[in-house]
UniProtKB/TrEMBL annotation:
The keyword Cell cycle does not apply. InterPro entries: Aldolase_TIM (IPR013785), Chorismate_mutase_GmP-bac (IPR010954), Class-I_DAHP_synthase (IPR052899), CM_dom_sf (IPR036979), CM_II_prokaryot (IPR002701), DAHP1/KDSA (IPR006218), DAHP_syn_2 (IPR006268). Pfam families: CM_2, DAHP_synth_1. This is Bifunctional 3-deoxy-7-phosphoheptulonate synthase/chorismate mutase. It comes from Terrilactibacillus laevilacticus. The keyword Coiled coil does not apply.
Length: 358
């Protein structure tokens, strides 16, 4: 059958499209190289001056029939996808990313491994209040076969008039109580200059939600070889959370546990909204172990167990909750800490859920 005029013309278009495709991808490769140069020079990817030069060249060289405005719109689209390409290239290079390191990172907390496939718990009071208090909690934590104890000595409180924690004195009390039962200590440090001194007391440095973007603190903990538990910021996107972890790892410390602790939304039924799907997203995007803090996300004692079950089912490596000998008189978070009886029931109910789905 003879080719119609339309077929001939379409054949010519197909040929030109193939050439355009090759040229666009040839251009894209150069854009990627420019992206790499910009990365080493810490230059901004978006360059309006360069885009203006390119637009002017289009205006000068355009012989139609497309209008210059139409061509500039097409090229603006090319600049935008080019910028995306440079961004993607940059993201794939993140040290915390799975693309960079496909295998899971196992965080070794003085012999206790987080991220090796065995789901773990960390329990303890919201704040260290006295030696008796942390000693009693440590005894209960040990009784349940848990190796990690938490307790705040530096407390970032919303009101400056609320209990601010016992500071280094509190860290010492917690360390001593933990040592009595061979437990490992997780505690928050808020100030970069306190990090070095804190290394003598803690096995894991916690960077709290309010400090997730305290970049000086992130860099400081990144210079140590202590494991870090990094909590997601109150209103941080997953991308910002990942970049915060990158700050730590870029300084040399790869022993990072990411901790989902709920984000601020319009919902008032819980203290924060537990973003449960952040767990598989973080595990997919990064090679780091992921923890879920069921206390600060829910803010409700009655939701600790279902939230912990959800965390284990969705693949969390570590679940954090709070235990106090007498929550009613606790100096902070009294509505959501468990007493010892509630802790016993919680562990009885949650233990059969450990490592069921992974
Ligand atoms: O020339 C650059 O600096 C580039 O990054 C390449 C490019 C382009 O696609 O031509 C991409 C984005 C910039 O805003 C300007 C130009």
């Amino acid at each position: 059958m003879p080719e119609s005029q339309l077929d001939v013309l379409r054949g010519k278009i197909d040929k030109i499209d193939e050439e355009l495709l090759i040229l666009l991808n040839k251009r894209a490769k150069i854009v990627e190289s420019i992206g790499k140069v910009k990365e080493t020079q810490s230059t901004k990817r978006y360059d309006p001056v360069r885009e203006r030069q390119l637009f002017d060249r289009i205006a000068q060289n355009n012989e139609g029939p497309f209008s210059t405005t139409a061509l500039q719109q097409i090229f603006k689209q090319i600049f935008q996808v080019s910028l995306e390409l440079q961004k993607d290239d940059n993201r794939s290079a993140l040290l915390v990313s799975r693309k960079k390191k496909p295998e899971d990172t196992i965080v070794n907390i003085s012999g206790i491994k987080v991220g090796d496939g065995k789901q773990q718990f960390v329990m303890g009071p919201c704040a260290v209040e006295s030696y008796e208090q942390v000693y009693q909690v440590a005894e209960q934590v040990k009784k349940h076969g848990i190796g990690l104890i938490r307790g705040g000595a530096f407390k970032p409180r919303t009101s400056p008039y609320d209990f601010q924690g016992l500071g280094f004195e509190g860290l010492e009390l917690l360390r001593n109580a933990a040592d009595a039962f061979d437990l490992k200590v997780i505690s928050e440090i808020m100030t970069p200059s306190d990090v070095e001194k804190a290394l003598d007391y803690v096995d894991v440095i916690q960077v709290g939600a309010r400090n997730m973007q305290n970049f000086d603190l992130l860099k400081e903990v990144g210079k140590t070889n202590k494991p870090v538990l990094l909590k997601r910021g109150l209103a941080a996107t997953i991308e910002e959370f990942i970049y915060a972890a990158e700050y730590i790892m870029s300084k040399g410390n790869d022993q990072i546990i990411l901790c989902e602790r709920g984000i601020r939304t319009y919902e008032k039924a819980t203290r924060n909204t537990l973003d449960i799907t952040s767990v598989p997203i973080l595990k997919k995007e990064t090679h780091l172990p992921v923890a879920v803090d069921v206390v600060h996300s829910t803010g409700r004692r009655d939701l600790l167990l279902p939230a912990a079950k959800a965390a284990l089912a969705i693949g969390a490596d570590l679940v954090m909750a709070e235990v106090h000998p007498d929550p009613a008189v606790a100096l902070s978070d009294s509505a959501q800490q468990m007493n010892f009886e509630q802790f016993d029931s919680f562990m009885k109910a949650i233990n059969p859920c450990v490592n069921v789905f992974n």
